[in-house]
Amino acid sequence: MCCESKRRFLLLYATQKGQAKAIAEEIWQQAGAHGLEADMHCISEMDKYNLETEKDPVVIVISTTGTGDPPDTARKFVKKIQDKTLPPDHFAHLQYGLLGLGDSEYMFFCNGGRTVDRRLQELGAQHFYDTGLADDCVGLELVVDPWIDGLWLALKEALQLQKEKEGMNSAVDAVSSSLSPALHNVHELNLSSEVQNLKLEDEGARDSDVLSQKLDDINLVSPARDTEPSLVHSVPPVSQSALNIPALPPEYIEVQFQDAQGKNPHLSSLISEGTTFEVPVRKAVQLTREDAIKTALLLELDIADTAFEYQPGDAFCVICPNNVSEVEELLHILGLSGRRDDLVCVKVKQGTKKKGASRPQHIPERSTLNFLLIWCLEIRAIPKKAFLRALVECTSDAGEKRRLQELCSRQGASDYTRFIRDSNVCLLDLLHAFPSCKPSLSLLIEHLPKLQARSYSVSSSNLYQPGRLCFVFNVVEFPAGPCRPLSRKGVCTGWLAELVAPLLHPSKNTLDTKGEISSTKKITIYPRPNNAFHLPADPSVPFIMVGPGTGISPFIGFLQHRQKLREQHPDWKFGETWLFFGCRHKDRDYLFKQVHYFTCFLENGVLTHLKVCFSRDSSTAEVAPPKYVQEALRLCAKEVARVLLKDRGYFYVCGDKKHMADDVSDAIVDILSMEMEADRLEAMKILAMLREAKRYLQDVWS
């Protein structure tokens, strides 16, 4: 419902995984304490708001996908405002403030927010509050919290200006001059390398949405011998501070158990991105030796009887379940072990104070409790501060309650980052650490995000292997630590490894009558096409591939596809191909070595140059060989520069963002600078032009 009061402002959010929505809801909750009312909508609900006629200030919270695009929920909105026929004063009446969410581990940091911000400016919209860019790499709250704190004064100034403008009907310049100088002094909260200098001002308990918890209100047990903070223990000054903690999120979900047996929804109903396919796993190969640091597996899926289509370079998503033993453990802690097969009916709680409350889209209206916890909720998610705040109310022990308050407070921000965020703590870890905390099922549904499908790069060519789809992955390992009592495997990679174990270690039971391995194991997948990370359209164009570790995955598909094209079109001209691959040990984790892929590609001319590095192997050579792909690139500087500049070739990078892709980018800048005899700034501009032309392409992850 729109608010008729002049204290209204429009609040829009565009979310991919729920972060932006959660922050928008926090703004909505705090607004009332400031005498304001937020008219909140998802940016996709364009029938519920109209920026063309909007008179009140607009606040936008928008995330960014890993590829740098706006989230799916913002696609229609972005397409609409990108209309080139719109005049430059289309939004001249609009006042807005924008908070962008991103992750600096990825190339296009906050590009979703930047794209919308830039386009609104081009169409004449004006900032009433400067843009905030929050970085999930180091903690969104470092920018989000102070940005929200400063929002209220800016909103009141903008609303006051609007009121004066309407009442006096005076000239725009005269009205503008009345705007408080303080409004113009709010600097863009763009998280940079100086983030450690960001001071969060303790504002006490001046707002009703912030609760002050004093030490004398609780019986806090603090062993004198503990001088270091931990997940469950704090030290001064946090342990002695009055705390500013978030407002308690309103409850809005109600669950009812039914003893009757019922049918669970199909997995496809959990996905809104497109058509799903249930396909058998036909083959599994371990590509690494048992003593390798990481275990890499190659899986081959049978897609022959489906309409699944892909190109080399595309990705696809695997719908995966939570670990069954972790779900059992959670059921035990919740006291619901005996009800796992009971039907759960989920609906919105009557009389809830939550704005626009509705059952989350990823939660079925009716399903068994087991299905809900295994397939719908991300129980491994790092708990957000709003969740910690809600868990406080479910905790009976005074010391545990105080520590949870500290972890979600302004004063405990560094402890939250260190012991929750950076330690990858999940709900189960918290429940073990704070045993008096007994949350309800409805609270978990309210605060745990959707169990996301996991994305993998295709490692095959449908032209080379019709009806087959291959992919490669490392089995992710999370070691035990101070905040995690037991080691864990990745949600999806651990499940896949367990699923294909019979194919990796066949027994008599897995062999068919011909002595071949048979498998009835199936997984559910759906396509996730990549718009750019594909082979050059012109086969005569040369290209360079850099893919250490499992980053080699898409390039196997590239080379398979190129081999088949060469066989089918012997009269075509094909450009040279370079592959830079790296791993730790030549004899332990040299992927695809045992299947002789690279040797075959070299022998038949599909691969022109192969450069391989081994970072952990010692060498007795007089000149030590390069240990990393970026070093190998520098040794081939002249050839690399020729391919990129003279031959107008393509450059592909796939793999780890933090420890590889950035170093490769730096190496290319150095190469361009040296070979062009230009300064580093000029070389960076050339690299930016290559990116813009889609000739320097990345498929990276953190």
Automatic annotation (TrEMBL):
Record localization: Cytoplasm
Main enzyme class: oxidoreductase
Swiss-Prot/TrEMBL catalytic activity: 2 cob(II)alamin + A + 2 H2O + 2 H(+) = 2 aquacob(III)alamin + AH2
EC number in record: 1.16.1.8
Flavodoxin-like domain sequence ranges: 9-152
Domain FAD-binding FR-type, residue spans: 274-536
Record GO terms (molecular function): [methionine synthase] reductase (NADPH) activity; flavin adenine dinucleotide binding; FMN binding
Entry keyword set: Amino-acid biosynthesis, Cytoplasm, FAD, Flavoprotein, FMN, Methionine biosynthesis, NADP, Oxidoreductase, Phosphoprotein, S-adenosyl-L-methionine
GO CC term, one of those recorded: cytosol
Keyword Transmembrane listed: no
Main location: cytoplasm
The protein's assembly and partners: Forms a multiprotein complex with MMACHC, MMADHC and MTR.
Protein name (database record): Methionine synthase reductase
Lineage of origin: Eukaryota, Metazoa, Chordata, Craniata, Vertebrata
